[in-house]
UniProtKB/TrEMBL annotation:
The keyword Disulfide bond is assigned to this record: no
Protein name in UniProt: Bifunctional protein FolD
Domain Tetrahydrofolate dehydrogenase/cyclohydrolase NAD(P)-binding: 136-276
Family that this chain belongs to: Belongs to the tetrahydrofolate dehydrogenase/cyclohydrolase family.
Species of provenance: Teichococcus globiformis
Molecular function in Gene Ontology: methenyltetrahydrofolate cyclohydrolase activity; methylenetetrahydrofolate dehydrogenase (NADP+) activity
Domain Tetrahydrofolate dehydrogenase/cyclohydrolase catalytic: 6-117
Pathway where this protein functions: One-carbon metabolism; tetrahydrofolate interconversion
Keywords: Amino-acid biosynthesis, Histidine biosynthesis, Hydrolase, Methionine biosynthesis, Multifunctional enzyme, NADP, One-carbon metabolism, Oxidoreductase, Purine biosynthesis
Encoding gene, per UniProt annotation: folD
Protein purpose: Catalyzes the oxidation of 5,10-methylenetetrahydrofolate to 5,10-methenyltetrahydrofolate and then the hydrolysis of 5,10-methenyltetrahydrofolate to 10-formyltetrahydrofolate.
EC number(s) from the headed UniProt entry: 1.5.1.5, 3.5.4.9
UniProt key word Signal: no
CDD domains: NAD_bind_m-THF_DH_Cyclohyd
């Protein structure tokens, strides 16, 4: 058996198209500011793709690039300015940050109403308690993909591999909110392969190239690969051995072209949601 490929690029394109229509009906351009400190290569791809997508959807989007040596106080100052700017609806500070800057302090300084990453403790707490604030883009994108591929989530056994604050934990919370039976596994889990084999829906977010092997996948499972790993030869691969897993899964996301494009589309979606909520816009339809 060979798995159906879930085309994240196509689903993201459709979502961006709907957002462009929504934006053009607003009568103003939702403002997004991405702050990048230094030159982390992984965030370089992201920032470039995001800029293109945001402008195409009609957002007022800009990237603010600061030097690697920027101090914490200086970054907090910029965040305060963006918080106070009425034209700015969404603020995203690219992670990772250089070591002289404490990321939790910066994330805590972002106005939760403009926190389009959904990383502020206020938004994380809202998600954990079943209230919907701004939801982290990558797990939100995964939920969109599952819906687009018509994968039933309610009652399904879902396993999330990874427990970071930006992917694993919010992913587990969203699956739970959608009535899946959720297991979270991580580096201290005793038998990863065994736990993964129980999954009807497996979401891999570990950051280890092709760590998930074909025989970790149950027959007929849905495999969502969040991982973005650059190999020494320059190839981009996920956390799942795609060719081997495709022999067992019923549906699987590729890397590239899976979750990555959805993350960007959801960032635009969050910016529109933040603009509508913060400005008290009433949308038709
Ligand atoms: N497609 C997209 O849009 C995005 C992709 N990514 C990608 O997703 C991946 C995960 O990102 P992120 O969550 O930030 O990563 P983190 O490094 O923050 O978290 C990785 C998680 O995986 C667990 N882990 C690491 N190694 C192992 C192992 N050998 N066995 C079991 N568990 C392990 C860690 O466990 P422990 O907690 O015990 O240390 C941790 O919970 C990366 O490849 C990243 O590039 C990230 C964001 C967006
Ligand atoms: N505050 C913050 N928020 C983030 O959401 C965040 C971050 N920091 N730091 C970096 C990671 C990584 N990330 C990606 C998103 C999309 C692609 C993406 O577009 N991928 C495409 C193209 C990849 C390529 O062509 O190289 C794909 O998978 O098809 C990649 C990586 C968001 N992140
Ligand atoms: Mg990380």
């Amino acid at each position: 058996m060979s798995a159906r490929i879930i085309d994240g690029k196509a689903v993201a394109e459709a979502l961006r198209g709907r957002l462009a229509e929504r934006v053009s009906a607003l009568g103003f351009r939702p403002g997004l500011r991405v702050v990048r400190v230094g030159e982390d290569p992984a965030s370089g791809v992201y920032v470039r793709n995001k800029d293109r997508a945001a402008l195409k959807a009609g957002l007022d989007s800009a990237t603010i690039q600061l030097p690697e040596a920027t101090g914490e106080a200086e970054l907090l100052d910029l965040v305060a300015k963006l918080n106070a700017d009425p034209a700015v609806d969404g603020i995203l500070v690219q992670l990772p940050l250089p070591r002289q800057i404490e990321a939790v302090k910066v994330l805590a300084a972002i106005d939760p109403a403009k926190d389009v990453d959904g990383f502020h403790a206020m938004n994380a707490g809202m998600l954990a308690t079943g209230q919907r604030g701004l939801v982290p883009c990558t797990p939100k994108g995964v939920m969109h993909l599952l819906a687009a591929a018509r994968i039933p989530v309610a009652g399904a056994r879902a396993v999330v591999l990874g427990r970071s604050n930006i992917v694993g934990k919010p992913m587990a919370a969203l699956l739970l909110a959608a009535d899946a039976t959720v297991t979270v596994v991580h580096s201290r889990t005793r038998d990863l392969a065994h736990e993964c084999r129980r999954a009807e829906i497996l979401v891999a977010a570990v950051g280890r190239a092709e760590m998930v092997k074909g025989d970790w996948i149950a027959e007929g499972a849905t495999v969502i690969d969040v991982g973005i790993n650059r190999l020494p030869d320059g190839r981009l691969v996920g956390d799942v051995d795609f060719a081997a897993a495709s022999q067992h899964a019923a549906a699987i996301t590729p890397v590239p072209g899976g979750v990555g494009p959805m993350t960007i589309a959801c960032l635009l979606e969050n910016t529109v949601e933040a603009a509508v909520a913060r400005r008290g816009v009433r949308e038709a339809g």
